[in-house]
Amino acid sequence: MANANIKKVKSSDIELKDKLVNIRRVTKVTKGGRTFGFSAVVVVGDENGVVGHGLGKAKEVTTAIAKGIDDAKKNLVKVPIINGTIPHSQEGRFGGAHVFLKPASHGTGLIAGGAMRAVLESVGVTDVLAKSKGSSNPANVVKATIVALTELRDANTVAQQRGITLNKVFNG
């Protein structure tokens, strides 16, 4: 299963940078009128292969963002990055959001938009081609991107899982 190779990381071990992906004003209608609150989607990463996402909800913007950052630090995962790009093409799905990631040669840059760009910058990818299909809901796009990144495997991991040498992975 894809979830078998997810490597959890402790947030206390590394220096994390946070990015606010989306903030929404939400409304609860009561008999006394409308009550406003805020919902914030946040991505944190060390720009060296570690990334996490979080959702924070509160009556004030700053509190919602702080809660989102705390939640993101609890959901950190390790992603294999080779020379600033990903090891192979990968698709990810979450809800109605579908994302496609493809490795790119050095100098191509980060060809991704919106929520995907925030996740890929936080993880430290500098050269990749990415496409978001389906839903554009930022929360689901972030989750689909992280699903795709966690399913990535580098050559060493493949060799270990198959019980063969690294040379045999490439030469068959």
Secondary structure elements and their pairing?
Layout: E1 17-30, E2 33-45, E3 50-58, H1 61-73, E4 77-78, E5 90-94, E6 97-103, E7 110-111, H2 114-123, E8 128-134, H3 138-150, H4 155-162, H5 166-171
Parallel strand pairs: 7-8
Antiparallel strand pairs: 1-2, 2-3, 3-4, 5-6, 6-8
Helix pairs in contact: 2-3
Number of strands: 8
- Determine the number of helices (DSSP H or I, runs of at least 4 residues): 5
In which range does the helix fraction lie?
25-40%
The helix/strand class is alpha+beta
Give average pLDDT, whole number. 89
Largest sheet: 4 strands, antiparallel
Task: Give structural notes.
- The radius of gyration is 18 Å and the shape is elongated.
- It is α+β, with helices and mostly antiparallel strands and 172 residues long.
- The protein has five helices and eight strands.
- Helix 2 runs parallel beside helix 3 (138-150).
- Helices cover 29% and strands 34% of the residues.
- The longest helix has 13 residues, at 61-73.
- The protein has helices spanning 61-73, 114-123, 138-150, 155-162, 166-171; strands spanning 17-30, 33-45, 50-58, 77-78, 90-94, 97-103, 110-111, 128-134.
- Strand 2 and strand 3 form a beta hairpin.
- A four-stranded antiparallel β-sheet has the order 1-2-3-4.
